[in-house]
Amino acid sequence: MATRTTRANRTARKNKQPLFDGADWTFDTLRVVYDAIEEVARKDLELDFYTNQIEIISSEQMLDAYSSIGMPLMYRHWSFGKHFVSNEVHYRKGAMGLAYEIVINSDPCISYCMEENTMAMQTLVMAHAAFGHNHFFKTNHLFRQWTDAAGILDYLEYARGFIARCEERHGVSEVERVIDAAHALMPHGVFRYRRPRSPSLREERERRKERREYEEQTVSYLWSTVPGSEHSAKADAEMRERKRELHLPEENLLYFLEHYSPVLRPWQREVLRIIRNIAQYFYPQKQTKLMNEGCATFVHFHIVNALHEKGLITDGALLEILHSHTNVIFQPDFDDPRFSGINPYALGFAMMRDIQRICQTPEEEDREWFPDIAGSKDWKGVLKEAWANYRDESFIQQFLSPAVIRQFHMFAVSDNADDPYYTVTGIHDERGFRKVREVFAQNHDLSTLEPYIQVVDVDLLGDRQLKLQHTRRNGISLDEEQKESTIAHLRTLWGYEVKMEEVAA
Amino acid sequence: MGHFVDRRLNPKDKSLGNRRRFLKRVRSHVKKAVDEAVRTRGIADTDSGEEVVVPADSIAEPSFRHSRKAGRRDYASTGNKSYQAGDKIKKPPSGEGGDGGKEGSDSGEGEDDFLFVLSRDEFLDLFFEDMELPNLVKRGLKQIEVTKPFRAGFSITGSPSNINVERTMRNALGRRLALKRPKDLEVRALREEIFKMEKISKPTQEQRLELSVLHELLEDLLRRQKVISYIDPLDVRYNYFEMRPEPRERAVMFCLMDVSASMGEREKDLAKRFFVLLHLFLSRRYKSVDLVFVRHTHNAKEVDEETFFYARETGGTVVSTALVEARQIIEDRYPASEWNIYIAQASDGENYSGDSKKCVQILNEELMKDCQYFAYVEIVDEAEAEFLNSEENGIELWREYRRVAGRWPNFAMKRIARPGDIYPVFRELFAKKTAEDNGH
Known about the structure:
CATH architecture of the largest domain in chain B: 3-Layer(aba) Sandwich
Order of helices and strands of chain B: EHHEEEEHEHHHEEHEEHHEHEHHEHH
Largest sheet of chain A: 3 strands, mixed
CATH superfamily of the largest domain in chain B: von Willebrand factor, type A domain
Helix content of chain B: 40-55%
Mean pLDDT of chain B: 76
Number of strands of chain A: 8
Distance between the termini of chain A: 50 Å
Number of helices of chain A: 23
Distance between the termini of chain B: 76 Å
Shape of chain A: globular
Largest interface: A-B, 103 and 66 residues
Strand content of chain B: 15-25%
CATH topology of the largest domain in chain B: Rossmann fold
Radius of gyration of chain A: 26 Å
Structural class of chain A: mainly alpha
Low-confidence stretches of chain B: 95-111, 136-143, 434-440
Number of strands of chain B: 13
Strand content of chain A: 5-15%
Oligomer: heterodimer
Strand order of the largest sheet of chain A: 1-3-2
Low-confidence stretches of chain A: 1-14
CATH class of the largest domain in chain B: Alpha Beta
Mean pLDDT of chain A: 82
């Protein structure tokens, strides 16, 4: 760190020329700085990352990228247009700044940097995205297990082409209807616990062909001529049988509809599959927001300081970077008008810096809370192990230390809808640490944040009513209005009656 | 290794398709906003486009979400000042959107109405949607044809300006390869070799022999280069254009406006707004429509656009002078046999006593049979508008014009009392009348 500069470093700085001076950047300076960053990342931090592809884009293009959930290519849909116009209005009014970069979990890892950035900012952005995020994407177990970095761009290209062809063949509004419905179910279009093997692009195409051939060979109203079951005595056994056949209960609604909906045509099933795959691709990002940003912020902070110590960037550039860095990790208090929840950059960065501190200069309390790592000196190893094997919820559960809880003055409150008061259940004191940590971890657990909904039964040979079940946790029910309109979408895809029951956990 | 890619020159507006889809989806709201805009401001200053507010629920993207109104949940937050465990904090009265340690975890987007800005082009497109100059292709248009050049392949003759370089060079290259024309590089290499040999002051017998062989070789190469030209007239190709006839709409629009003293600022303003709208509409829809501006007091004058809209003049009111002037211009420049003629007239209805009869005469006997469509707009007081709520009532000019309207189906007249009327009246006058046309 800059404050811990040794005399040796200080002399080194005098001997070295800074890599750049002033605000303007050129591709040559970018390359030189990139190489310097890469050396720190590889030799010092020993990061593991995909090959980088850094693309310079203009602010308009950044707005474009924003509206298609950050992906460089996306199928067309009005909702992206909606996000685009709303972002545009905010941006033009000055209410919103654009991100300095967007990074994509792909191999090679693509980061977009804005042309407006100064050279100092480009340095920060490269260290942050091209090395911090990149390392996280490549090593974190969720990403490794659930996403195909190498295939995602091809897949999106395929998805866009496929949906465009569907629009040509079946009309824009027909395709829009299916996408609208599928988007509504997107949060429930992911596998949380198992992952089916993902087919390659070629296999995808072949499967689609097979489906079409199958469709041509079979007559769809065959279904309606099958005689219904006569005896209700066997009903129970039958229900068990069909549940087994349909792999019920099933929590991935889009998967279930894709495979078992009685009314969808093959192209519609394929559209559902595409949207389901995209939802699955983003699922790890939703679970690791704090870790991912924390990792990237920690990495850029370490790298720019290392560059400064080596004398490769000027004091001015460092100050500019730190200014930006400080803004990014700003955490307003709960009663501040700027407060909008926990800033994942702030907490992630603070926790990772704290891990570094615990490893290097632990105090008595740390030895008690983290006997494994306190004083181990190997902070790089500990951090890399954490980056690879945790997600937000488990990371907080494992590593949120009393020191950080104190630093942020954290507290936990309990909110009962019937009670006119919130109750404070824990603060940053000896008795409250564990409670705060537990609540905090829970707040980052997607499985408690998102409603738990399953398909529990469907009688394909009978009235074909689709039965869903929402499991209420802590008495939290679904938003009625949203529920009704989402079920309307579900009905479009299922084609028959859809029922939702809510049960207590 | 990192790769750098400069994407700044890539096409932007990747979202344009999405934006169009979105606009289509919120069409009804957009149209309402456009109507509202015209009611409240002049169309001439539409440079900025228009803000559109769409209620959030019509473009909602629903999903299963947790209700905020039920159940028990725990939050963790930051910045504790004085709370101790067990403290009770009063909830903010509204219940929703409170910031008492609440985390906006699953609310996603705000529930506010959605606001965005239409670009000028999008605005005008919607603004003039479904409007058409009536009867535009009725008369004599099929005969009027313009010939236009169209690309039609390549030819071996043509003017030098039409040479297709790529084709020509490709042919030349093929021919040179086929006939084995020596390359300039070969010749140069050989020359250099000869030059080197010649520099040797006392060449041996062998070297002399070699030199003479080289000389012969060079001569041969040069000869072949001369015989086989680099570009032969045979190689040359020209872009070929075919002249194709194209039917063209020839139409002229006359804008007649009363600018006399009886037209107060308000009346003039309304009339101008009407014409500005008309002008915008015409210049947007029809690239080939001529515009003629005539303004009159007690005498009429043809003026340019700028003068028509912005210059001031005062005097008495003789409406017929404008019609006479229009007729004169038609005679001079726009023979009715070749042009579709449209006339729009705006006035406050005041006229020199007895002149209205003359107007009717001119219209009945000359103008109406020559023109495709005549639109008359009368600017009236708001108080008057109440009073004159029936089409039958009116002062002299209006009453006389009613007779014309009764006789000629292509004569239309409307009243305008406030800026809000302009757009509806305008739409009425120029709405696509397909059903009616088919009926005739």
